[in-house]
Design brief:
Elements lengths: L5 H6 L20 H10 L2 H6 L1 H14 L4 E3 L6 H5 L4 E4 L3 E4 L6 H5 L4 H5 L3 H13 L5 E7 L1 H10 L7 H9 L1 H25 L3 E6 L7 H22 L5 E5 L15 E3 L6 H8 L4 E3 L10 H15 L4 E2 L12 H15 L2
Parallel strand pairs: 1-4, 4-5, 5-6, 6-7, 7-8, 8-9
Antiparallel strand pairs: 2-3
């Protein structure tokens, strides 16, 4: 029998000896060991496409920092890339698609469903390799971007501060946007199914750009598609916990619904508010402000405050978004140690 995974138990709200912790973007630029592998890979996409290297950087934070779960090293944009869009990462500018979606013909040329999901073999190979090396008591988190977050890049062609091209479509041609979201949703369902079949223990769906949508439109253009993915996976794999992480939507908390297990609380949403609104329905994850990692004192203060709210029950420690590249490794270790210290039963 494999060792019990504390992280998986915590996702289902079971009693655990302490509150487990991981960090979004934990496999990344704050670790010199990651930068060495990245340099060897040549560029970011090469690293995503190389199972041995992706496996190595996935395991680094478990070994170096002491987190309770590994999260698969990949990128959300491998999905539109394999749907036939031309992805590149431009130094200093981030991801770019040379052929953004403007009309129905552009949607029709995208590869959909099983064909697109089957092209992501390097991701599934990475998962299988990680599972041969990850300790039995550590969980492996697989992930995807939400259809809305993926669509923003596919429509804008790159990251954006205003989302005006997407939002113009949302208000002026909502049918077109729904067609894009539906096509992406079908690929995501199959992609996550294949991740589970390759060996992941937990799914997280990131909606990084949730806050770009006004609250009374959020369900229509994002949340309902996330719920559709979660319910598809839950029906097939009820033993796999699902985490939903929509960033920056405190105004939507009253409207959260769906068959999933953990709600990721971002740092702009008070933990007390999330607990009051959702704590009885879902396990809560989060939500330290990532910049507190620059100070060990500020980190300890936040960890103790979160523990006082959650009391070690129905909770997973995490940051309220990703760790930043210039955080000292010692401070990241301190965060993990403090989460374990305050929650040990």
């Amino acid at each position: 029998m494999p060792t019990r995974k504390i992280f998986v138990d915590a996702c289902f709200g079971k009693e655990t000896p302490y509150t487990p912790v991981w960090m979004m973007r934990q496999a990344g630029r704050y670790l010199p060991e990651y930068m060495a592998v990245r340099a060897k890979a040549g560029n970011f996409l090469n690293l995503c496409h190389n199972p041995e290297m992706a496996c190595e950087v996935t395991l680094q934070p478990v070994d170096i920092v002491g987190v309770d779960a590994a999260i698969l090293f990949s990128d959300i944009l491998v999905i539109p890339d394999e749907m036939g869009m031309n992805l590149s990462f431009v130094k200093g500018e981030g991801p770019k698609f040379s052929d953004p979606i403007k009309n129905e013909e552009d949607i029709d040329r995208l590869i959909g469903g099983e064909e697109a999901a089957s092209k992501l073999t390097y991701v599934y190979d990475t998962i299988k390799l990680i599972k041969t090396k990850l300790a039995d008591d550590k969980a492996l988190i697989g992930f995807t971007g939400s259809p809305w977050t993926l669509a923003t890049y596919m429509i804008e062609g790159q990251g954006t501060k205003t989302y005006n091209v997407c939002k113009k479509m949302m208000y002026a041609n909502p049918e077109l946007l729904h067609k894009i979201l539906a096509k992406v949703t079908e690929v995501v369902k199959l992609y996550m199914q294949k991740q589970i079949e390759s060996g992941i223990d937990v799914v997280q769906i990131f909606d990084s750009w949730a806050a770009a949508i006004e609250p009374n439109k959020y369900d229509e253009f994002s949340w309902k598609y996330m719920v559709e993915i979660a319910e598809y996976l839950k029906e097939k794999y009820p033993h796999i916990p699902i985490i939903m992480f929509p960033k920056g939507i405190p105004a939507f908390l009253d409207n959260v619904y769906g068959n999933f297990d953990v709600f990721g609380v971002d740092w702009s949403t008070p933990m007390e508010l999330a607990k009051e609104k959702l704590g009885d329905k879902y396990v809560l994850q989060g939500n330290m402000e990532p910049c507190r990692l620059y100070s060990k004192e500020a980190t300890t203060e936040a960890v103790e405050d979160i523990q006082n709210v959650m009391q070690g029950k129905r909770h997973i420690f995490n940051l309220g978004h990703g760790i930043l590249p210039d955080v000292p490794v010692e401070n990241a270790k301190h965060f993990i140690q403090e989460c374990h210290r305050v929650s040990k039963k």
